[in-house]
């Protein structure tokens, strides 16, 4: 019998890579998508995949209950979210509802199932805010002091998942994933914005690229490696919480320097600063300790930072 997976947020970067991974392993893959006036915007990353999609919304509990009951999943990957931290300052209420109460709706829908479903929650390094352990890393025991409505909602969802695991003996896991990128990343996130902008400059399509804070530092991995971690986490015998990171941190300025260098340019000639891209409260530094998932589950990223940037540059060089 095929295993059945249900992915919320299936049309996103991670949802599409996870679908590919699960299909290759013989799963029947279902996903929830929201109605959009341009349907092309909904399925551009998954249109060639043999997945079954259902219309629903994390905030529409009736739709979620119906889908979960119809699909009878063995594994649920809850990746759907308002995932842009900067935008969460503009839409705090929507972000909190979707990223916290939406998770509650998913947990309740799964609790009502007769079968024991494995539940993965997309938790985030944004939950740590500016807390750093003495050794310079963040890990699941690091205090959570979120610096955005997005981070606050993710902390609530994280705690709800732990609570449901304990209170109802459910197989609920949190993956605390640090930033992860790819050519499929939305181009309003900083890595793909930089790569796309640099290629446009290289090809004479634009003269400058406006960014916000260049001094923030992030631990960037590749989404393809991180969806493998999601699958390992979900299928480990005992449900738990795991930190997934590369353990390397680079500033936005480093990202600019490396990307423009690959294209034989000096970023200082092209980058401008625009206060529109600054955040009311910034998370300054992320560097994750993923030794537990490496040691216990054998997870190891295949991409390096350079191979990831190279893949993203090649992608935009072909498209533009
Ligand atoms: N988006 C964006 N645009 N960010 C900019 C810009 C810009 O023009 N200029 C500088 N930055 C800085 C931001 O201030 C932030 O410090 C950093 O670049 C990364 O921003 P994003 O790429 O938007 O990602 P994020 O770190 O806020 O959030 C991502 O990672 C989280 C995990 O830590 C998202 O994927 C979240 O959904 C995820 O949970």
Features:
alpha/beta; 2 domains; binds guanosine-5'-diphosphate-alpha-D-mannose; globular; Rossmann fold; 320 residues; UDP-galactose 4-epimerase, domain 1; 11 helices; two-stranded parallel sheet
Outline the fold blueprint.
Layout: E1 4-8, H1 13-24, E2 28-33, H2 39-43, E3 52-55, H3 61-71, E4 75-78, H4 85-90, H5 92-111, E5 118-124, H6 149-168, E6 171-177, E7 180-181, H7 190-202, E8 209-211, E9 217-218, E10 221-222, H8 223-235, E11 241-244, E12 250-251, H9 252-262, E13 271-273, H10 291-297, H11 305-319
Parallel strand pairs: 1-2, 1-4, 2-3, 4-5, 5-6, 6-11, 7-10, 8-13
Antiparallel strand pairs: 9-12
Could you please describe the fold and organization of this structure?
This protein is α/β, with parallel strands linked by helices and 320 residues long. The chain folds into two domains: 4-180 and 221-244, Rossmann fold; 186-218 and 249-285 and 304-319, Alpha-Beta Complex (UDP-galactose 4-epimerase, domain 1), CATH 3.90.25. It is built from eleven helices and 13 strands. A seven-stranded parallel β-sheet has the order 3-2-1-4-5-6-11, sandwiched between helices. Helix 1 crosses helix 8 (223-235) and helix 5 (92-111) packs parallel to helix 6 (149-168). The protein is globular, with a radius of gyration of 19 Å. The N and C termini lie far apart (44 Å). The mean pLDDT is 98. Residues 83, 85-86, 124-126, 178-179, 188-190, 193, 211-213, 216, 218, 252, 277, 279, 282, 286 line the site of guanosine-5'-diphosphate-alpha-D-mannose.
